[in-house]
Amino acid sequence: MGLRDLFRRAKPTPAPAPASPAAGPAERRFHLDRGRMFDLTKTGQLAALFAVPRDQRESAWVASFWDAAWCGSVALAEPQTFHGPDGFPYLRLDLPRPETAFESQCLANLAGDCRKNWVGAAFFASPDDGPDQAQFVITFGVIDSLLRYDSPHGDPIDLAEAEGPVDGETFDVERGVWSQTMVTKESHEVMVGSPSADFLPPEIAAPLCGFLEQAWGMTDPRVELLVDMKMRPHRVLVIGRKRSEFPEGVDVDHAARTLLWYLPPSRSVMLMSEDGSRERMLPLRSLFNAG
Questions:
Q1: Radius of gyration of the chain (CA)
Q2: Are β-strands 235-242 and 179-184 bridged in parallel, bridged antiparallel, or unpaired?
Q3: What is the pLDDT of residue 231?
Q4: Lowest mean pLDDT among 62-66, 136-140, 252-256
Q5: Which residues contact 102 (CB under 8 A, 6 or more apart)?
Q6: pLDDT score recorded for residue 9
Q7: What is the C-alpha to C-alpha distance for residues 285 and 222, in angstroms, rounded to an integer?
Q8: Rounded to an integer, what distance in angstroms lies between the CA atom of residue 4 and that of residue 38?
Q9: Could you tell me where the DSSP H helices lie in the chain?
Q10: Given Cys at both, which of 90, 208, 286, 289 links 122, Cβ 3.0 to 4.6 Å?
C-alpha cells in the first residue's frame, strides 16, 4: 500500500477532557430520561439560536445548539421525512409556530427510531421553510454517535488517537477538505482484519450495505479493518472496491465521501488497493444477517 486515499471529515474534534475520578461516573449528556424530554424552554433557546446569522455560528453556537436540541420540544412535519440536497433521507423537526398547539416531540425521543429507519434528522426554524432551509442537519452517523458515545464527535478512542501528529518520516500527506492522499515513504507493518461489532455494529452495517448495493451496484459488499499505528487515528474501514472499478466519469472521491454519512464523525474510510483481494475481506452482510 504505497498510496492511500483516506476519506474523513474535514476537521477532527478534540477529545473531551476526562471526568475527575473523584466525581464518579459522569451523567450522560444525551440521556434517554423521558422526564427531562419535551422541554419548551429549550425550544425557545433553539429559536434564539436559529435567529443568529449563519456566518456567525461558531463553536460556541454549536455547543449551545447541542445543549438545546436533544430535549427541546419540536413538531414533526407531514410527511415526516424528506430527501435533502445531499440525496440522503432526514426526519424533519420543526420549531412550532408561536401560540399554536402541536404534538410535542424531541430528538432524544426519536433518535432510536432514526437509527432503526436509516435516516438522519434536520431542524427547521419554521414549518413553512423549504427543504433547503434547514438550520442544522444531523447525519445518520452522528445520530449513532449520540446514542453510542454520548457525543456528536464520535468514538473517544479515535478522537484521542487523532490528537497526535501524522508521522512525517513515514508519510507524505496531501490534504484536501474531505480527503487526504498519503504516500508511504518507508515500509512498516500494518494489521488487517475484520471490523468488530463495536467498530461497525449491525445498526450501521445494514444501511451501509444497502447503500453499497443500491448506489454502487455491489452484489456482495465486503469490508476489512486496517490498523496502522503510525496513522491518526489508527483504524480505517476499507471498502471492497478499487478506484479503477468505478465507471468512467464517476467522481470517485465524492462517491467515497458519501459513505461518511453512515459513520460516526471520527471514522475514516479507504478504498481497497489496486493489488488487494476481496477474498480475504468480510462480507458486510455477515455483520447484521445472522442467517
A1: 20
A2: unpaired
A3: 83
A4: 252-256
A5: 75, 96
A6: 76
A7: 8
A8: 46
A9: 40-50, 59-69, 107-116, 140-149, 156-162, 202-214, 252-258
A10: 90
CA angle 117, 122, 124 (to 5 degrees): 140
97: cell is 409556530
**Cα separation of 280 and 282, whole Å?**
7
Beta strand pairing status for 120-124 and 171-175?
Answer: unpaired
Phi, psi of 188 (to 5 degrees): -160, 165
Domain boundary assignment for the chain: 32-138, 154-287
CB 122 within 8 A of CB 84: yes
- Residue with cell string 468480510: 282
Q: Which of 197, 202, 52 is nearest to 136 (CA)?
A: 52
Q: Give the pLDDT confidence of 41-80 residue by residue, as tens digits.
A: 999 999 999 999 999 999 999 999 999 999 999 999 999 9
Give the contacts of 124 (CB within 8 A, at least 6 positions apart).
77, 92, 93, 94, 95, 133, 134, 135
Rounded Cα distance, 56 and 37, in Å: 28
Residue 233: cis peptide before it, omega within 30 degrees of 0: yes
Rounded Cα gap, residues 208 and 152, in angstroms: 19
Give me the residues paired with residue 184 across strands.
Answer: 171
